[in-house]
Sequence to fold (374 residues):
Amino acid sequence: MAPERHFFSFGNGGALRYHSLPRARKRRAPVFFHDDTMTLSEIAAKQAEALSEISAAADSVAIEAARVKYLGRNGLLPALMKGLRDVPPAEKPAFGQALNALRGALSAALEERRAAAETSAAPKVSFDFSMPGSWRGTGAIHPVSEVIEETTRIFARLGFTVADGPDIETEFNNFDALNTAKHHPSRDARDTFWLGPELLLRTQTSPVQIRAMLAKKPPVRIINPGRCYRRDTTDATHAANFHQIEGLYVDVKPVSLADLKSTLAHFAREMMGQSVQVRFRPHFFPFTEPSVEVDFTCHVCKGRGCAVCKQSGWIEVMGAGIVDTRVFEKVGYDPECYGYAFGMGVERIAMIKHGVTDLRMLYGGDLRYLRQFL
Ligand code: DAH
Fold:
């Protein structure tokens, strides 16, 4: 620390005046002289200290702070330069050289550090924001969803609204109210996933018929796509989890098999193309009387017979029929109501539409396969 130096002068008519050192000097950061000078080795030590500080400066702010501290107007170097005047003349050249060398070394180190900080702050990979982005491709509707959406749209145009029901159903809705005999094989634990004494994973979408009728008086015109569950071993045409679309129309005025057939024929043409034919085959379902199975002409051979339709020219698409009066009784409807119902397998229609021969391919999640249907 430099000793505070005071002096007196006799200027200004001899009046004794007291001067302190100029303010700027007083406030200056600690000065590094012993006896108003610094030895050459002290200068060398300072230089080493400054260089290590500069090389440790992490960013441009730290580098600038080091520059100000050592080379700035009130920094180390100007202070040492001023101290030169107190150095005995014989030693001045050596000190002058030492200070010049100090300035050169610090400036070079600062410059080098600044350049290094600039390159490391620059992004490693240059990025051109004007380049177009990479193409990720657009997704598409899965064939099963596509059939559900298309079917819903077709029936919506005929005045059907979409009804909903839960996957977990009561035994009453899934079996009893649908007039299914107490010992009907479909109730067996080998066919149905039971969750409790009266709760199960619905085996069909038909319980939504019951829900719709319990909720509203006729006329009822609903369509219901949804998941179903059966204890089937998975193979090319069976899965434990699949989809159905249920339809129900109930009115207080007569509704006939002819109405059902014309409605389903309209659906078939919208879904498969204008040339498709529809036929009814007698069948049995507990909740319809009479019951039918509905076939469409084979889309591959147009009815002439091929391997897909096993030479029959027809493909079975759904079950249907006139709602059994015992179902109306279960939901508290007047047994004199009239109605038709139908239920189709969604995967089956998707397979027919797209020529899929193995149901498992629809759920394999293999995009190379599914992309064919985009
Ligand atoms: N639920 C029946 C099944 O899973 C399909 C079915 C047949 C639904 C006739 C109906 C119907 O609504 O009237 O096999």
